[in-house]
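fyi for ur records
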Amino acid sequence: MPAERSIWITALSTFSSTREKILEHRFVSDVTSELWRRGIFDFAVSHSEVDNSGYDLIIEAGSTVRHIQLKAMQVSGARRDFGLQLRLADKPSGCAVLMLHDPTTLSIAEYRLFAGTAGNPLPSLGDKAVWHTKGNALGVKAERPALRSIPISSFLPVQDTIALVDRLFGIPQV
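which gave:
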C-alpha cells in the first residue's frame, strides 16, 4: 500500500468518531435534500444522545418515523457482518443503513439497507451472538447480549439516494 494511502487507513480507526460524524452528516444531507427535492418540507431529524437505544438518529417524513442505525465501511473493506442492537427491532420502523465510503474523501459510494418496508419493523435479527473484539485480563471475549450479528449480504444495495428515500419513507417522487 502506498505510504500516502496508508495515512487514510490509519486515520479511519484513529479518528473513528470524527469519521462517523462526517458520514452521519453526509447521510442526513443526502436524505433531507432528496425529501426537499420532492416537496417534502415538513420533516424532522433527531439524534440519540446515548448509544444504548439501538439507533443513531430518527428521521420523520410523511407518516413514517424511521429509527436509523448507521453503519460504515470503506469500499474495499472486508467485514462480513455488523452488530445490530436488539432494541432497534422494538422500533416500529427501525432500520440500519450501511454507508460504503471512500477512505480518503469519505464520500459515500453506496448505501445498503437492512429494513422492512416503510411503517413496518425490521426483518428478524436472528440469534447469532456478537462478541467483544478484545478479551478481558484472562483473554476471554465476552458475549454482547444486546447485539445480534447481521451478515453484510442482508443489507440490500440501493441504486442511489432517490431509491434510498423511496425505500425509507415510501413517499412518491415529484
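Residues 16-37 form the longest helix (22 residues). thats all i got for now
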